[in-house]
Amino acid sequence: MTIAAAAAMAACSSNKIEDGALTSGINLNNLDTTYQAGIDFYMYATGGWQKANPLGPEYARFGSFDMLREANVERLNDLFKEMTTLKTEKGSVEQKIADLYKMALDSTRLNAEGAEPIKQYLDAIYAVSDKDGLVKLVADLHNSGESPFFGSYVEADMMDSDSQILYLGQSGLGIGNRDYYVDAQNAELKAGYLKFLTKVFGLAGVASPETAAANALAVEDVIALHSWSSVQERDVEAQYNPMTTAELVAKYPGFDFATYFAQRGIPAQDKLIVAELSYFEAFAKYFATADLAALKDYVAGQFIAGACGTISDDFTEASFDFFSRQMS
Predict the structure, then answer these.
(1) CA pair distance 148, 66, nearest whole angstrom
(2) In sequence order, which residues have a C-beta less than 8 Å from that of residue 233 and are 6 or more positions away?
(3) Which of 149, 171, 224, 233 is least buried, going by the fewest C-beta atoms within 10 A?
(4) From the CB of residue 116, how many other CB atoms can be counted at a distance below 10 Å?
(5) What is the mean pLDDT of the segment spanning 295-303?
């Protein structure tokens, strides 16, 4: 369908009858006729609306899904506020939800505590003395919803929708897309990410934050180099690689998947899916030979970055400065 045909269809479908007369349902003020529809139809169709509804400084974009999200947040906040006024039974789910909500709103307490809430977890990361211990720690983090190095999840088997099955897929890049790491044109963005990591390592009280940040980014660079591109990720069939737990353990000896699954309490699987075979092969080889200290800095960096929105304002602001200002 041509742009002209699409515009004509939109116009026709918007017509309506009022008092027996056919009138257009299109608000012409929403158009910007200084643009030619055949050259920039988006600005032609929405330019007037954009001028009348400027984007707020706190947003990089604002559309229908953003409106739904904000409305949902408001509804949830109203619900939680109501719960804080209830006389709840001690130890009940309602009491726990209300207490958690109050704690999250207590910015005075959060700012006074600083990095203290995550200190025990960072201490556990840096206390690891060998690769076996690091595998167990990664398993614990995965159980908590983190995803250093790779991710795991359960969903319907793509070839048998009646079965739920375990999937393993590449993960662990702080700024997501591999192109942010491997394309030279993104050098400024990588520099900003390094600055962010250095900042939060320092706030967390990690010794030599510059070194820790450099180590963490170096590990991410290796992960990114072997990660599949967004174009490769479109090939769903190439990511359907079934194998048993025993086959997985034998195929990637550089990372002790037997210990990993045991630590997570996941029994041997007759069938699981490994999405990106080449990534896991490269990752396992790298993990086996990589410097333990660098790997621990990487895991710590992933953990701190993930916690920024739930602890003191200085962490939140550091995260906002990079992810919401520079990236977005």
Answers:
(1) 28
(2) 239
(3) 233
(4) 12
(5) 98
pLDDT at 20: 63
Amino acid symbol at 245? T
CA distance 150 to 228: 12
Distance between CA atoms of residues 5 and 9, nearest Å: 6
Distance CA 79, CA 155 (A): 30
pLDDT exceeds 80 at position 73: yes
The two three-digit tokens of residue 305, written as one number: 């970055």
Burial degree of 168 (CB within 10 A; 0-12, 13-18, 19+): buried
Residue 282 in contact with residue 226, Cβ under 8 Å?
Answer: yes
Look up tokens 């075979």; give the residue. Answer: 277
44 contacts 33 by C-beta, under 8 angstroms: yes
Cβ atoms 170, 276 nearer than 8 A: yes
Q: Where are the alpha helices (DSSP H) in 87-186?
A: 93-105, 107-113, 116-127, 131-143, 179-182
Q: Which two tokens mark 286?
A: 């790298």
pLDDT at 163 (0 to 100): 95
Question: Rounded distance, CA 36 to CA 33, Å?
Answer: 7
Q: Which of 118, 113, 137, 141 is nearest to 127 (CA)?
A: 137
250-284: pLDDT as tens digits: 999 999 999 999 999 999 999 999 999 999 999 99
The rounded distance, in Å, linking the Cα atoms of 186 and 282 is 24
